[in-house]
C-alpha cells in the first residue's frame, strides 16, 4: 500500500492509538482504575457511546474527560472522513482507470488477447512483454493480474467465455488469441466463439487432455498446446540428453535472452527472392543460422547453400536478437 496515497488513513490510525493510550493512562491515575477499566472508559468516552456502566467519579477524572471528549470526537471524525475518502477515491480511481483502458483498447489493432491469467497465462504474458507485443489480458480475478504493466499491455476483468467481454477486448481487430483457461471445455468454447467473431484470428489453445486436442482443432484453433505433454518430454530429454537441454535453455531462456528464433516471410518485394543462401552469405554477413524453410506445405530443414529462396517462403532462423532484427530488416526491405 502506498504511504503517500493513504497517509491520511495512517495518520488517523496513529492519532486514534495515541488518544486511546493517553486516555487510558489519564483515567488510570485520575480514577484509580485498572488498566482494562481505564481502557474501557476511554473507548466509550472517545466514541461517545456512553453505556452508563462506567463514568468519571472524581473531580480530576471529570476534568480529564472534558479534555479528552472534544479531542476524541475530533480525531474520530477525522478518521471516519479519511477512511471514507480512501474508499471513495479508490473506487473512483478504479472506475476512471477502467474507462480510460477501454478507450485505449478500442483503438488497438493486430493485438493479442490472452484469456486466463493462471500459471500458463502468466508465462504467455511474460513472453509477449519480452517481445513488446500489444496485449489484452482477460481474467475473472483482478487481484491475480500483475501490477506496473507496460503501456502496451491492458486488461479486462470478466469471463472470457462471454461474447461481450471478447468484443470489449477488440476481438474483431485482434491478430491472435491465446486461451489458457483451466478447463478444456472453456477453451473449446472460447475458440468457437472467437473464430465466429473473427475468422482470420489465429487461436492458440491450451489442452489438458489429449482427446481434447482434436476438438480444439475442429473448433478452429490454429495450434493446440498441451503443457503436461510438453513438460513430460522436457523431463525425459533432461535425463537422456541433459547437455543439449541445458544448452537450449541457456540460449532461449536464461539471463537477458540474447538469443532467439524468428520467422521471416519473404514478400514479393524482398531482395532475397530468387537468390540462393550461398549467394546471400547469410551466416557470414548476419551471424544467424537458417534452421528451416517452410514452402507451402513442405518444410526443408537445414537447407543447403544452393537452395534458392522464393516468394512467400518462411525462413526459420536462429541467432542473437540484434542479428535477427538486422536480418529481418534487410529481408523485408524494398
UniProtKB/TrEMBL annotation:
Bilayer-crossing regions: 12-29, 35-52, 64-88
Q: Does Glycoprotein appear among the keywords?
A: no
Q: Where in the cell is it found?
A: Cell membrane
Q: Which domain of life is it from?
A: Bacteria
What Gene3D superfamilies does this protein map onto? 1.10.287.70, NAD(P)-binding Rossmann-like Domain, Regulator of K+ conductance, C-terminal domain
Q: Which InterPro entries match?
A: K_chnl_dom, NAD(P)-bd_dom_sf, RCK_C, RCK_C_sf, RCK_N, Trk_Ktr_HKT_K-transport
Full protein name: Potassium channel protein
| Record domain RCK N-terminal: where | 109-226
Q: What is its main location?
A: membrane
Q: Which UniProt keywords apply?
A: Ion channel, Ion transport, Membrane, Transmembrane, Transmembrane helix, Transport
Looking at the UniProt record for this protein, which Gene Ontology cellular component terms does it annotate, in alphabetical order? Answer: plasma membrane
- Which processes are annotated in GO (biological process)? potassium ion transport
Q: Would the keyword NADP turn up in this protein's UniProt record?
A: no
UniProt lineage? Bacteria, Bacillati, Bacillota, Bacilli, Bacillales
Give the RCK C-terminal domain ranges: 249-333
Which organism encodes this protein? Peribacillus deserti
GO terms, molecular function = monoatomic cation transmembrane transporter activity
Q: What is the recorded membrane topology of this protein?
A: Multi-pass membrane protein
Amino acid at each position: 500500500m502506498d504511504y503517500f496515497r493513504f497517509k491520511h488513513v495512517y495518520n488517523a490510525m496513529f492519532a486514534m492509538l495515541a488518544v486511546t493510550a493517553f486516555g487510558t493512562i489519564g483515567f488510570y491515575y485520575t480514577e484509580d482504575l485498572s488498566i482494562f477499566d481505564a481502557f474501557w472508559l476511554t473507548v466509550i468516552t472517545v466514541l461517545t457511546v456512553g453505556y452508563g456502566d462506567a463514568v468519571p467519579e472524581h473531580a480530576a477524572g471529570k476534568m480529564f474527560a472534558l479534555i479528552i471528549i472534544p479531542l476524541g470526537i475530533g480525531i474520530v471524525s477525522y478518521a471516519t472522513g479519511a477512511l471514507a475518502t480512501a474508499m471513495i477515491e479508490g473506487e473512483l480511481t478504479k472506475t476512471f482507470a477502467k474507462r480510460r483502458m477501454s478507450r485505449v483498447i478500442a483503438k488497438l489493432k493486430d493485438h493479442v488477447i490472452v484469456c486466463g491469467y493462471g500459471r500458463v497465462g502468466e508465462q504467455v504474458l511474460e513472453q509477449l512483454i519480452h517481445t513488446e507485443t500489444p496485449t489484452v489480458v482477460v481474467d475473472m480475478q483482478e487481484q491475480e493480474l500483475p501490477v506496473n504493466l507496460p503501456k502496451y499491455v491492458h486488461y479486462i476483468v470478466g469471463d472470457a467465455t462471454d461474447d461481450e467481454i471478447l468484443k470489449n477486448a477488440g476481438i474483431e481487430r485482434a491478430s491472435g488469441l491465446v486461451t489458457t483457461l483451466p478447463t478444456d471445455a472453456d477453451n473449446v468454447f472460447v475458440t468457437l466463439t472467437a473464430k465466429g467473431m473473427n475468422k482470420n484470428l489465429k487461436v492458440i489453445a491450451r489442452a489438458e487432455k489429449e482427446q481434447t486436442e482434436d476438438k480444439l482443432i475442429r473448433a478452429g484453433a490454429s495450434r493446440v498446446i498441451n503443457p503436461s505433454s510438453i513438460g513430460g518430454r522436457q523431463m525425459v530429454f533432461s535425463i537422456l540428453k541433459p547437455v543439449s537441454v541445458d544448452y537450449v535453455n541457456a540460449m532461449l531462456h536464461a539471463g537477458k535472452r540474447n538469443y532467439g528464433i524468428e520467422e521471416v516471410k519473404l514478400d514479393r518485394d524482398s531482395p532475397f527472392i530468387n537468390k540462393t543462401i550461398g549467394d546471400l552469405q547469410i551466416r557470414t554477413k548476419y551471424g544467424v543460422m537458417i534452421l528451416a524453410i517452410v514452402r507451402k506445405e513442405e518444410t526443408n530443414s537445414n537447407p543447403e547453400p544452393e537452395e534458392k529462396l522464393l516468394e512467400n517462403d518462411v525462413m526459420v532462423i536462429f541467432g542473437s536478437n540484434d542479428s535477427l532484427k538486422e536480418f529481418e530488416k534487410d529481408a523485408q526491405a524494398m
